[in-house]
Amino acid sequence: MAIADLYTSGEHRRNLAHFAALATLASVDGEVSTEEKLLLDRFATKLDITQSEYKEVLKKENKYPIEAPLDSEKRLERLYDLFRIIYSDHEMDPEEKILVKKYAIGLGFNGEKADKVIERSVQIFGGKLDFEDYLYLVKK
Fold first, then answer.
1. How does pLDDT run across 77-87, given as a tens digit for each residue?
2. Taking the alpha carbons of 114, 74, 78, 39 in that order, is the dihedral positive or negative?
3. What is the 3-state secondary structure (H, E, C) of 23-62?
4. Higher pLDDT, 98 or 114
5. Phi, psi torsion values for 21, nearest 5 degrees
6. At what angle do helices 3-26 and 72-86 cross, to 10 degrees?
7. Which InterPro entries does its entry note (predicted)?
8. What confidence tens digit (pLDDT) does each residue in 51-61 have?
9. What is the pLDDT of residue 114?
10. Would you give the distance in Å from CA 46 to the centre of its chain?
11. Do residues 19 and 44 make contact, with C-beta atoms less than 8 angstroms apart?
């Protein structure tokens, strides 16, 4: 097996874990809305998630651990994706807020930094924000 194959495999595993976190967040209120389903479909395509992996991830038991990127910009990109799922219905439920904080900590933010990034994200996030704008505003 080539080293490139190992890297691709590891990258795919990280993408799958990220997709699993997105799916968990989308279903935290008991069901996946039409808007959330559309976003999950787009993320599945973007992250090269197969149909069988998609079905497996949507099962109630989520067996994929959070894998924290070393790059802080990648961590913010993962949170940005989560906020897109959260705000697909234009509001953040208390369950979603708890889950996004756990995910932020799992990504490597300490509790205080996670609170700050989440609070700032909630203030600025309107559902149609480009990642570059989000990154600029959160890092401010």
1. 888 888 887 77
2. positive
3. HHHHCCCCCCCHHHHHHHHHHHHHCCCCHHHHHHHCCCCC
4. 114
5. -65, -40
6. 30
7. TerB-like
8. 999 998 888 67
9. 92
10. 13
11. yes
- DSSP-derived secondary structure letter, 126: -
**Is this structure's pTM higher than 0.85?**
no
Dist. CA 78–CA 103, nearest whole Å: 9
DSSP state letters, 47-114:
TT--HHHHHHHTSSS--PPP---SSHHHHHHHHHHHHHHHGGGTS--HHHHHHHHHHHHHTT--HHHH
CB of 29 closer than 8 Å to CB of 96: yes
Look up residue 112 and give its amino acid: E
Backbone angles phi, psi at 76, to 5 degrees: -65, -35
Instruction: Report the candidate in 121, 122, 126, 125 with the shortest Cα–Cα distance to residue 138.
Output: 121
CB 99 within 8 A of CB 24: yes
Distance CA 73, CA 139 (A): 9
